[in-house]
Write a structure and sequence with these properties.
With 261 residues, the protein is an alpha/beta fold. The chain has 2 domains: 7-187 and 227-252, NAD(P)-binding Rossmann-like Domain (Rossmann fold, 3-Layer(aba) Sandwich), CATH 3.40.50.720; 190-226, no CATH class. 48% of the residues lie in helices and 13% in strands. The chain has 8 helices and 7 strands. It has helices spanning 16-27, 41-52, 68-82, 105-133, 154-173, 192-205, 209-220, 229-239; strands at residues 7-10, 31-35, 58-61, 87-90, 136-141, 179-186, 251-254. Strands 3-2-1-4-5-6-7 form a 7-stranded parallel β-sheet, with helices on both faces. It is globular.
Length: 261
Amino acid sequence: MTLQGKSAVVTGSSSGIGLGIARALAGQGANIMLNGFGDTPETIEKLKAEITALGVKAAYSPADVGNPAQVAQMIEEAAKAFGSVDILVNNAGIQFVAPIEEFPIEKWNAVIATNLSSAFYSSHSAVPGMRKKGWGRIINIASAHGLVGSPGKAAYVAAKHGIVGLTKVVGLELAGTGVTSNAICPGWVLTPLVQKQIDAIAARDGLTNAQASEKLLEEKQPSKQFVTPEQIGKLVIFLCSDGADQITGSAYSIDGGWVAR
């Protein structure tokens, strides 16, 4: 258990990629602050029980990550519950797709707040404690869309490019302190967010779910296989390891060859 005694905050961790990362970190001995928005109390208790069954502590914050005061409170609560926040995984994200001239202003603002500003808020709150301790890991879940663009995703692509830029700046500012900042850029992962896009393709083109999934993958991902939350979790574990002490300000693609084209 390489992370025994460490504690992590993982935003957007009640499902999908975030939950996969939380499970991976807990499996290595890290205490976990779960975070999600709109989850039922029954769901949260089940998730906390799953995490504590791995022999670590678990807590939950319903913080809206687009709200700086709520994010600061979440970091403070995690530090009080566990003694410190050693690992911060900024994973929470939302999506909206429309051509630029039809893109609602309120949707732009919501995507930027949740996908980009939230990572600034949480890093702003967590870094002082990491600096003081002389060890920390900030891992931002960006996207292949943090490195390349796609039509109809102005806010998402802008936010994810911003995450990669923020990762570089924080990495430079904290170089030599024992605190690192890195980004992970997944391709298509079969999460509820991506399933909605598959459903839209199926409805639009009269396809089955399997056919729509294949169409989605063929367009971007040469491997024609989804990345899994478990695979992303393993990359997070590596970036938290001693072997990654000198890796900072970097963006790691895990995308089946998407951005290699």
